[in-house]
Design a protein that fits this description.
InterPro entries: Cytok_DH_C_sf, Cytokinin_DH_FAD/cytokin-bd, FAD-bd_PCMH, FAD-bd_PCMH-like_sf, FAD-bd_PCMH_sub1, FAD-bd_PCMH_sub2, FAD-linked_Oxase-like_C, FAD-linked_Oxidoreductases_BP. By secondary structure, the chain is an alpha+beta fold. The protein is built from 14 helices and 18 strands. The protein has three domains: 98 residues, Uridine Diphospho-n-acetylenolpyruvylglucosamine Reductase, domain 2 (2-Layer Sandwich); 115 residues, Uridine Diphospho-n-acetylenolpyruvylglucosamine Reductase, domain 3 (2-Layer Sandwich); 211 residues, FAD-linked oxidases, C-terminal domain (Vanillyl-alcohol Oxidase, Chain A, domain 3). The strands form four sheets. Strands 5, 6, 7, 8, 9 and 10 form a six-stranded antiparallel beta sheet that branches. The protein binds 2-acetamido-2-deoxy-beta-D-glucopyranose (NAG) (2 copies). The site of one 2-acetamido-2-deoxy-beta-D-glucopyranose (NAG) has 2 residues, from loops.
Length: 476
């Protein structure tokens, strides 16, 4: 009894200390004086608060004071204006799918805006995409920033159209990837997703609702694209579309030599015109390490033993992942086109593997990995991920560092530290020098894309401090 009493007294003391500290720290309590129409949408129940206190990275925990559930764009505007009216404004963080890896979608003691709640009011659906044509006849889609890319894909495919540039993982929000860069294997031809946007609606830091584009309010437009959420809340994006292919030839080429691998990647991305018919439609690359169990699910059962032997023999196998889109009109010559594309490439002879899948199955390829990882309890775990860009001229050095780590049996720690994982790069000032930001959102590894205006290329490296799946890691 006595000890129980002592314990509860200690708890009360702790609790009191906590309150005093919180009050002294900032003024979140002023949020309790929010105007009634805002107050109704400010949620404080513990379950909602705890949902908003973590992101995909599972590394940072920040507790918001409240979660805001907007049902219109003006709700977001009013929230920002209310914050600005206080002596000490509170922090506001928009949250889409929260695929940030270091707390970027959180607001410690501030307000997290649950952007997903906007779904309900857009004609009541998650997949509302208006497809119209501008003066030049080029199609585009108007998309709520809270929409996720898989839904955008479905809605545009119904009209035989598709966005041109992608992210590897499609269950991310449009506002989320456009606040970063949106990078995948199409980037070398179309640029990142942020280079395929005609117009945005943004709620600014003053709470104004502003439409911006390259021609009007361009500073805001280029600030917000890739702006890591620091220049306003994106609420709508007008996204460039093109005709959708129906099927893809999906290739893996295996290399035992880094120079041959990276040389061939550079060659493949040298056909990079938007309308270049001989070009690949997607190029990425990754590594397979001699650390069983290998993920060989892409390959035919009968080839798996010889792939395993190859990996055992060389320790590291480099893989170019290459895709060529087609449809009924190109059905007759697609095999020939693929042959032309891989002619002269220096992969290990006979180690070229091909799958033929639908366009959607290919774009949504990470989802099946997700389902597998979820079933093994490996999805909601810490993701100490680093994405960085390495100039093509230095990529070989990088391979040597990695190789050293692997061959010495060292743990797969981040070999170069993590200087770029959270710091935004210098801001681009115009569309012509838009460079992808070090992604905090991108899910899967590498891509090589030409940096506009220079003759060098960059490789995006995705590095996992702890490997996600045994036996595979990411380098391109
Ligand atoms: C945001 O809203 C969606 C849709 O209602 C819900 O599924 C999700 O859990 C909410 N997230 C947070 C952090 O409240
Ligand atoms: C393509 O051809 C297949 C088989 O001939 C047919 O079922 C399909 O409807 C065609 N698709 C289009 C878009 O024409």
């Amino acid at each position: 009894m006595a000890s129980y009493f002592r314990l509860s007294k200690a708890l009360i003391l702790l609790w009191l200390t906590y309150i005093v500290l919180t009050q002294a720290q900032s003024e979140p309590w002023s949020l309790l004086k929010a105007p009634k129409e805002l107050a109704l949408k400010l949620i404080r129940d513990p379950v909602t608060l705890s949902l908003a206190s973590i992101d995909y990275g599972h590394i940072v925990h920040d507790n918001p004071f409240e979660v805001f559930e907007p049902s219109s764009i003006s709700d977001i505007s009013n929230l920002i204006k209310f914050s600005n009216s206080l002596a000490i404004p509170f922090t506001i963080a928009p949250r889409g799918q929260a695929h940030s890896v270091h707390g970027q979608a959180m607001a410690d003691d501030g307000v997290v805006v649950n952007m997903t709640k906007l779904n309900g009011f857009r004609n009541g659906g998650r997949t509302v995409v208006a497809i119209v044509s501008d003066g030049t006849g080029a199609p585009y889609a108007d998309v709520g920033a809270e929409q996720i890319w898989i839904d955008v894909l479905h809605a545009t495919l119904e009209r035989g159209l598709t966005p041109l540039s992608w992210t590897d993982y499609l269950f991310l929000s449009v506002g989320g990837t456009l606040s970063n860069a949106g990078i995948s294997g199409q980037t070398f031809r179309f640029g990142p997703q942020i280079s395929n946007v005609h117009e945005l609606d943004v709620v600014t830091g003053k709470g104004d609702i502003v439409t911006c584009s390259a021609k009007s309010n361009s500073e805001l437009f280029y600030g917000v694209l890739g702006g890591l959420g620091q220049f306003g809340v994106i609420t709508r994006a007008r996204i460039a579309l093109g005709p959708a292919p129906t099927r893809v030839k999906w290739l893996h080429l295996l290399y035992n030599n880094f120079a041959a691998f990276s040389g061939d990647q550079e060659y493949l991305i040298s056909f990079n015109g938007r309308s270049e018919t001989n070009a690949a439609d997607y190029v990425e690359g990754f590594l397979m390490l001699n650390q069983p169990p290998l993920d060989l699910s892409f390959y035919p059962e009968s080839d798996r033993p010889r792939i395993t032997s190859l990996v055992t023999q060389y320790g590291i196998i480099y893989i170019i992942e290459l895709v060529k889109y087609y449809d009924n009109s190109s059905l007759e010559h697609i095999d020939e086109d693929v042959q032309l594309l891989v002619q002269g490439l220096k992969f290990v002879p006979t180690f070229m593997f091909e799958k033929d899948v639908s366009y959607e199955e290919f774009l949504n390829r990470v989802h099946s990995d997700e389902l597998t990882l979820r079933s093994q309890g490996l999805w909601e775990v810490p993701h100490p991920w680093l994405n960085l860009f390495v100039p093509g001229s230095r990529i070989t050095d990088f391979d040597e560092v990695l190789g050293y780590q692997y061959y010495t049996g060292g743990r797969r720690e981040m070999p170069l530290g993590s200087p770029t994982s959270t710091d935004p790069s210098p801001r681009p000032s115009s569309s012509s020098d838009l460079q992808p930001q070090p992604g905090t959102i991108s899910v899967l590894p590498p891509v090589i894309f030409p940096q506009r205006g220079t003759h060098d290329t960059s490789s995006r490296l995705g590095i996992l401090a702890e490997p996600r799946t045994p036996g595979t890691t990411s380098l391109g």
